[in-house]
Protein 1
Amino acid sequence: MSEAVALLDKASIQQLPPFENLNHHNIVVIENFEQCKIIEEELKNAAILGFDSESKPTFKVGEISTGPHLIQLATAQKAYLFHVNSSTLKFLQPILSNQKQIKVGFGLKNDKHIFHKKGIELESCVDLAKGFSHFGFKQQIGLQKAVALLFGQYLAKSKKVGTSNWARKPLTSQQINYAAADAYAALLVFEELRNQKLLPAHISQTIQTVLQA
């Protein structure tokens, strides 16, 4: 395991084959309630969803974020990118607050706070960042390193795209691919850890409790 850890420096990860993201036909940008209704059954019947959110960055001292501006949910086949407005939030609230639906992602520490400000209580969210102690990582690791570790692939994470304006319409193709990959790859990482029986005990217990409820 220590050898695998040693190989995960930035330069080594960048030499790996690129991450196989969903193709653009399977990435859907959602802007209104009519679009939400089309995918309602699929999302509400999903036991586990990849999850992430993006916010327009703040640059001034004391500036308060109005995010999230984009919410991503992914199944094994598709990623849905929701522009945040009153209608999409109304649709997403029962999914994000559903204790019987697991939402998996990375770096979700601040999400509960920003979603609470939008009137949404996140339930059954599993942050995978601390799920790699089996591999020798005592601290949190990010999605990029997790993908490299489990799949031997390089998930490009452009800082320029990551700090771009997520409130813009339409999103750029780079933003769409970036946002979709964050949710989709998180779901793949979770499934791989579960298949290899490498999920930490506290995460396994959470999953078992939710799925048996």
Protein 2
Amino acid sequence: MTWLVTGGAGYIGAHVVLAMRAAGDEVVVFDDLSTGDPGRVPDVPLVRGSVLDGALLGHTLRDHGVTGVVHVAGKKQVEESVRRPLHYYRENVEGLRVLLDEVLAAGVGALVFSSSAAVYGMPDVDLVDEDTECRPVNPYGTTKLVGERMIQEVAAATGLRYANLRYFNVAGTAAPELTDRGCSNLVPMVFQRLRQRQAPLVFGDTYDTPDGTCVRDFVHVSDVASAHVAAARGIAEGRVSALTANVGRGEGVSVREMVQTIREISGTAAEEWSEPAVAPPRPGDPARVVASAERIRAALGWGARCDVRDMVSSAWDGWTAQGSGSPGT
């Protein structure tokens, strides 16, 4: 099959492209490069454009003989979504609607959708499974839930085969050039603070969790990418046609614990200035969200292989190799 990866020059998308190519798939990247970097996908056909541009999408699908789409493109910052909800509805919901229009018009029969654990909101359970009620608490999560339901309803009407993959908290890197260079995710955010010899920020420490900080299920980006390969294979081979599944490790790690691991691996744990500082909680942040990954294991035989130290070590190596510098430089 030939897969179009929207957002394929971004952090997660480029890892998906790498994994799919390693699995022998033909890949075309479609990215507006607002946050993506063409240097991440130097040997793959790249079409620069927005998923809101239906004409360009349609031409791309037909010109490259695309038979399946992995839709990673979209806006993903919770705090920004609270400030700019209409921007998120335009990019994430209208962008998906336009994409689905063109997918159906081009006769493309397979779609893997990047969803999010944000669809669950603030679940009051130790492990979140796919039957847990979805009650998103921020516009980002709402746009992902609307996207899932749009895909399900289109599939019911047309026979589109799909997999909605609900990512938990993604970290790490497979190669230095694919490193997450943004500072909206926890790990690079802490790296940035340490590089400047500033205390890492912990957003809130009065949550109903063991140490008062948010608890998350961190999953290596290489594992997330391999989940896309497994989903694409499952669809292509007819083993799944309508899958919604979590992508996580099933292990909760608090933000404070994650910051301590980063301090240890970066060699700054003994430095007084690297002790975390508490900032006000961010709007829309739930206290605890940890995955049950049993459904994707049963459906596709997928399971995460990397642990938290793997994520932080690979990310730190990539961060320093990309010239971001050691602490204090």
Protein 3
Amino acid sequence: MFQVDLNCDLGESFGRYQLGEQEEILKYVTSANIACGFHGGDPSVMRETVKMAIANGVKIGAHPGLPDLNGFGRREMAITPQEGYDMVVYQIGALQGFLMTFNETMQHVKPHGALYNMAAKDPKLAEAIAQAVYDVSPSLILFGLSGSELTKAGEKIGLRTAHEVFADRTYQADGSLTSRSQKNAMITDQEQSVAQIVKMVTKGVVVSEQKTEVPLRADTICIHGDGAHALAFAKYINETLTKNNIIVDAICKLEVENEKS
């Protein structure tokens, strides 16, 4: 029996700007990556998203990004590893404060956007982020692109590490995600997306844009909560995985089941 976590980026609204249908999406995902105010989110949005996730039994993680609201954290910035460390510690702390008011624990940390992609390729930045997570709490699970420098850094320092794959993104032959600047970066067809997901979970491979099979590990699947059809997509993915006899549950619960078996 195959099993996988289904995570979604949430809490990315701020001020007057509202993104996604959070409350409904939370019915179909098992882990929520909550923005911490740098690329999206604000204090009120963070609190409300934490509250909704708890109400739906969804495990919570910090989603730290670059300080770039205008670019939604998707534009690269020249930062040092120390700056990356500081940004991650700061943002985990912001979310941790809200979790404490609900007597809830944090499950994981997943960098956002450009910070995520930079850490996937830059060993020094990856090590700094992994160190930041470890220093806050060694019990946290680090989410990173499958087979990337970030997952390697997490495993090296002794963190529980979840290799992440994407439901709506295409891949390159080196295992990296196709840049959003390319017109073929996103998968908009539900059938194509789900077929890719099922293959990644059950076969451990993805077909790249260069038509090669790239090996990977799929511990958790990301869907984006700000997409035009995010809610329908989340529901469809959850239902299809279940129909394919794939257990969908939070990564921390899946790890417990693995230890028991």
